């Protein structure tokens, strides 16, 4: 909001006729109150213990003991260990904006750490001091396997259409974070530019990340059906044997209500009985599906507008980070 609100020259529509009652506009270009709110908000987030041992942001807190007529402790004091891809992405664009608004490179450094953590959670790591990442883990690493980003619900086919947008959201915000740093302030006195050294560091880091993004783009492309439509489970070809059969300890998956797939007619006649399928969805099991002969991306809600958004977002990200358009 500090960088772009208001983003045009149009006056507040009622300011002239109602100036006595409405006062000044609610915001002005580069209003310092917005910048202060952003800085304070990120500082609060850093102090909130919202990241797990892998350095990933969990979904938040809820009230311990709440439910069944009890108000519990009345405080948001129990951390939900559920991890989603999009929660990592929305932080990245915010960090990029905080750098541009303050010139403080620590915001970019925090972004680099978070991106490395996401890549590691897919089983892809940097080798020592090497600038080239390699994927080591063939098993489930927290948010994927073999270097391919996944939601926990992808394997079971139980993702809501909300969750089908998450990977696309992540790659959209990653692309924003990795845009080339300007060498000169876009608005002198209000924003900042980067030194040549910082710009080179940023470009170099994001090109390496682009290798991982390209790996994910290829995985997304592999899910297309005969009509060219993307599926949501990009990592289906790997199907790690150690894929978690249960949610992480103290995790609640509020985003995916598996029973909807049963109660509202999403299950096909070829799928097993409702009760068995419901149990398997909650456990994240494959429901006995032979992944080599079945179109696993046609299960559950199948290919939707949301899965196309995800495929396009990772393709665009790969294009931008590897500088393929120039």
UniProtKB/TrEMBL annotation:
<feature type="compositionally biased region" description="Polar residues">
    <location>
        <begin position="286"/>
        <end position="295"/>
    </location>
</feature>
<dbReference type="InterPro" id="IPR053169">
    <property type="entry name" value="MUG_Protein"/>
</dbReference>
<dbReference type="GO" id="GO:0005975">
    <property type="term" value="P:carbohydrate metabolic process"/>
</dbReference>
<dbReference type="Pfam" id="PF03663">
    <property type="entry name" value="Glyco_hydro_76"/>
</dbReference>
<feature type="region of interest" description="Disordered">
    <location>
        <begin position="269"/>
        <end position="307"/>
    </location>
</feature>
<protein>
    <recommendedName>
        <fullName>Six-hairpin glycosidase</fullName>
    </recommendedName>
</protein>
<dbReference type="InterPro" id="IPR005198">
    <property type="entry name" value="Glyco_hydro_76"/>
</dbReference>
<dbReference type="InterPro" id="IPR008928">
    <property type="entry name" value="6-hairpin_glycosidase_sf"/>
</dbReference>
